[in-house]
Design goal:
The chain is an all-alpha fold and 57 residues long. 93% of the residues lie in helices and 0% in strands.
Length: 57
């Protein structure tokens, strides 16, 4: 289960970064902001999973 969550976090980070970059490139600040938010969500999920690993190990 933890592996699934880590993969989901990485996917959110990559998708968010791509959306942010695309938004900046085409001058769409709303898209860039949504991308930053999605990336932050992935970062938070990854941090949560790393925290769980500390307590397991």
């Amino acid at each position: 289960m933890a592996g699934d969550q880590k993969a989901k976090a990485k996917k959110e980070q990559l998708k968010g970064k791509a959306k942010e970059t695309t938004g900046r490139t085409i001058g769409n600040e709303e898209m860039a902001a949504k991308g930053r938010a999605e990336k932050a969500k992935g970062d938070a999920r990854q941090a949560k999973e790393k925290g769980k690993d500390v307590f397991r190990g």
